[in-house]
User: Fold this.
Amino acid sequence: MLNWAARYYPILRELKQRLAETDSLLEIGSGPAGISKFYKSRFVGCDISFPARPQFPMVPVVATAAALPFGDRSFDAVVASDVLEHVPPVQRMVVVREALRVARKVAVFAFPSGNPAAEYDRKLAETYDRCKEERPVWLQEHMQYQPFPSIDLFTELSSEWRITSFDNENVVFHNWVMRREMRKIWRYCFLILLTAVPRLMEHLLRRADRQPYYRKIVVVQRP
Assistant:
């Protein structure tokens, strides 16, 4: 839960600066929850499957990120949070282009990036192995689809779009959170804190945005 807050809070800050309350939102690779834990307006969540019941206020749509079943500029904003690292490198640009096709105003992409992030995930995989626990599917895909995406993926878009980026979440902090969230009691404690004092938790999480970073967040706007 704290891991989700660390990556979604900065995305929500970017959306708040650029969207009106009535603007539409699509989240690609949402799973059954996605941004709904922190975003209370109705939105469309898209994924290849929903293993659990989608959470309100999401409107679920089953589809692949490489072929979205929506018309051009169907949504004011599109979010793809921790999605590109689950896509084979040769297919990543297809997913980015498809997200931009359906975006009317802005698209936000967040993904682990760089050697420190890759090294951390290798160590986390080893931790699961030592504990004789099965690696989660998301971690297996992190290992499978190396290298991680980078800002270079968006270079060819610079003539068509306005692109900005920033870094998110210190690797050591991310490591600490993920290891704690392997245990139910820690997930429960983090949930209580995020529910009881969300503003304080957001402030504390912003202090965790320092080098070396785990994640890159890229904001792509129509000129």
In short: The chain has a mean pLDDT of 93. Strands lie at 25-28, 43-47, 58-62, 75-81, 103-112, 162-170, 213-221. Residues 2-18 form the longest helix (17 residues). The first strand starts at residue 25 and ends at 28.
